[in-house]
Amino acid sequence: MYLLNRFGPPYQHESLAGDLIEQFQKGRSLAWLWREVLYAVLIERLRAIELKPWGSIAKVTLRVINAIMLAAALALGVGTLTRADSPETCLLQAQC
After folding, report:
1. Beta carbons within 8 Å of 53's beta carbon, 6+ residues apart
2. What is the helix (H) or strand (E) element at residue 31, kind and residue range?
3. Which of 2, 9, 44, 74 gives the lowest tally of CB atoms within 10 Å of its CB?
């Protein structure tokens, strides 16, 4: 939750963190939790670009950071899909 508190929405990070923790405790996966945190931070970073009248260098820097965070979120999603195809998950198949 450090990322959410540090880079997430300034006025809603406590309630958002509470909702995410509650869903995680109800059975959501760790990958789901990380994906939601990264999405919340990404959305806040995009909002920061739009609201502040910075120079073009600052906007480009934030866009690069956002692209890296989006790539991390996608990689996390792909990682969960590839783990689902691993031999450890073939419990019902006759030959693994």
Report:
1. none
2. helix 30-51
3. 2
